[in-house]
Amino acid sequence: MYMKTDWKKFSWLAAALLFAACTPRAEELALYVGTYGKNYYKVAFTDGTFSAPVPIPAKDPSYLATGEGANLYAVSETGPDSGIYSFADDVKTAYRGEIGDDPCFLTVLPGRPYVVTADYSGGSVSVFGLDASGALTERVEVHQYQGSGPVASRQRSAHIHQVKVIPGTDWLLASDLGSDCIRVLHINDAGSPEVLTDHPELTVPCGPGAGPRHYEFNTAAGLLYLLTEISGEVLVFRLGKTADGAPTFTLLQRLQADETGVDGSADIHLHPSGRFLYTSHRLRNDGLSIFAVGDDGLLRKTGYVPTESHPRNFLPTPDGRYLLVACRDSGNIQVFAVDEKDGGLTPLPESTLHFDGDRPVCIIPAR
Fold first, then answer.
1. Which pTM value belongs to this model?
2. Could you say which DSSP state residue 95 is in?
3. Closest CA to 231 of 267, 252, 261
4. φ/ψ of residue 349, rounded to 5
5. Which tens digit of pLDDT belongs to each residue from 344-367?
6. Which residue stretches of the chain have pLDDT < 50?
C-alpha cells in the first residue's frame, strides 16, 4: 500500500534529532544531602531532574563535608549525645562522641589531617585528627568560648555556628551567635603543639543582638559577607592584613536582608558568576533575599522570593543555572531557575525532591 510522506514533518523531525545529537548532555551534579533524621543521602541532579536518593544511615547528620578521595564527614547534631562520623565510599569508618553539644558545621583543614567542628550549644570549636586513610581519630583540641548578648532567649552563652578558613590563608573564622562576634584562630604549622591558636585580640564585633551565623567570601573583591541570624542583616567587611599577616576586617556595609524581625535568617551564598548574592530566611514569610553585587563587591538588595517551609542551607549549582534549597519542614529540596541577567529566581515545582521522614537541611557537592 502506498503511503504519502509528509516531507515537512519529516524534515522537522530530522532536524530535531540532529540538534539533539549535537547538543551536549547537561553535566550530572553529584550531591550529598544532610538531614535531621536517620540518614544522609546521595543524589544526582541533571538539568532540573533528580535521581532517586540513596540513603546512608546516620543519626541527625545535619551538616556534611567532603575530604580527600572518597571520605565524607558528618556531624550528629543531637544535644548532649552529639558526635561526628567519618565515611569512606559511604561506609562508616569511625564515630567520635567527645564533642560539644549540637555541632552544626564542620570543615576539613586544607592540606592538614584535621576536621574542625562548630559546636553550637557547647559554645566550642573542636579539632579531630584523621589517620592516613582519612578516618577520624580522637579529639585533639577544644577551644571553649564564653560570652553572651542582649537577646536573653538566644544569647545566654556562646554559640559557635560556622567555622571556615579564609581562602588562601592560614586563618580560621568561627562565628559566635551568642556573643555577637567572629572569633579568629590561626592554623599552625605542622609540628606545632597546637593545631589552632585563638587570637582574642582579633575578634570581630558584629553589633549587639546581631547573632552572626553564616558567611561567604568574595575572593575577587577581597570581601567577607556575613549573615546575622537574629537581626537579619548582611554585613560586608573588607578583608586586609597587618604587616605580620594577621587578618583585618573593615565594615563597609550593613544591609537589612530579612524584613520580618523573627530571628530566623539562615544561610548565605554567592552566585558562581559573582554578580548575585542570596540569603535564606525562615519562621515567617519564608524565602530568599536577592542582592546585586557591584563591580566593587558592594551589595544592593533587588528582590525577595518565597520558598517552601523553613529554608535552611541552599546551593547554587556550579553552572549558575539553578538554586537548590533545603526546606526542612516541607521535607523537600526546592529548585529555582536563576535568571542570568538579574539573578531573579523562578520556582520549578516539577523538579522538587521530597524526603519521607528525614528533613533536609544541608546540600553539598560530592567530589
1. 0.92
2. E
3. 261
4. -60, -30
5. 999 999 999 999 999 999 999 998
6. 1-25
